[in-house]
């Protein structure tokens, strides 16, 4: 019986297993390389930080690199390659990024949001958050945001979340929690991780749901913790909020809950 591997953590499985128990990502047919086996000992290496990519996008890139015969290795969400292959790998990275971006439906009704009072940095943050939420969008020639009308409610939630985050950046913003103890922060993330992991296995685990909603409610009001980049922290908040929203739907969809719980778990496992 042939073996399969998780490209990201290197775990080996027997044929018939579809995804890695630890990472939740689909398996590949070729054993992944160790970092020290990428190129010769005297060749320079490069690291691509792909934490903001989905597992599916990283797997797509892994398969493209394998098909192109480009040696590479993974350390979590960090990809190690030969420096000499940088140009070829950049082309494949761009290919995956374009394939993963949602696009507007030209036949659908669109909603336009005026962005005149938004700074370019705020628009960039908004675009990143919409992309992470899987919401198709673009900016028109006037700089206004255009989205599919069917996504308006979801876009409004992202806008509200970003506006709250911008407000939390103000020194005297109300309802902002400033933690001065790293252990408190780690405990909150651990609670969110553990409860999301349990929800992934049982979408009706009421104790886990209450624990997650409690942790998310506090994390969502935190000032950005020290050591985080803005895009990274926005991504954490976006994924936590997506799980909260799916749990609070009038008619919760188990598949959506499981997907969002897995997304939270996969994001937080990189932090805690």
The main sheet comes to: 3 strands, antiparallel
The H/E string reads EEEHEEHEHEEHHHHH
How many structural domains are formed by the residues? 3
Strand-residue fraction? Answer: 5-15%
Helix amount: 40-55%
Q: Outline, from the CA principal axes?
A: globular
Strand tally is: 8
What is the terminal-to-terminal distance? 37 Å
User: Please, what is the average pLDDT?
Assistant: 83
**Class inferred from helices and paired strands:** mainly alpha
Low-confidence stretches: none
Radius of gyration, in Å, reads: 20 Å
The DSSP helix count reads 8
How are the strands of the biggest sheet laid out side by side? 3-5-4
Q: How does this structure look, described?
A:
With 272 residues, this protein is mainly alpha-helical. It has 3 domains: 3-100; 110-168, Alpha-Beta Plaits, CATH 3.30.70; 182-268. The chain is 46% helix and 11% strand. It is built from 8 helices and 8 strands; from the N terminus they run βββαββαβαββααααα. It has helices at residues 55-67, 86-100, 120-132, 152-168, 182-201, 206-219, 230-247, 254-268; strands at residues 3-5, 12-14, 45-49, 72-75, 78-82, 110-113, 137-139, 145-148. A hairpin with a 5-residue loop joins β7 (137-139) and β8 (145-148). α1 packs across α2 and α3 (120-132) packs across α7 (230-247). The model has no long low-confidence stretch (mean pLDDT 83).
Please describe the structure with a list of short key phrases separated by commas or semicolons:
272 residues; mainly alpha; Alpha-Beta Plaits; 3-stranded antiparallel beta sheet; 8 helices; 8 strands; 46% helix; globular
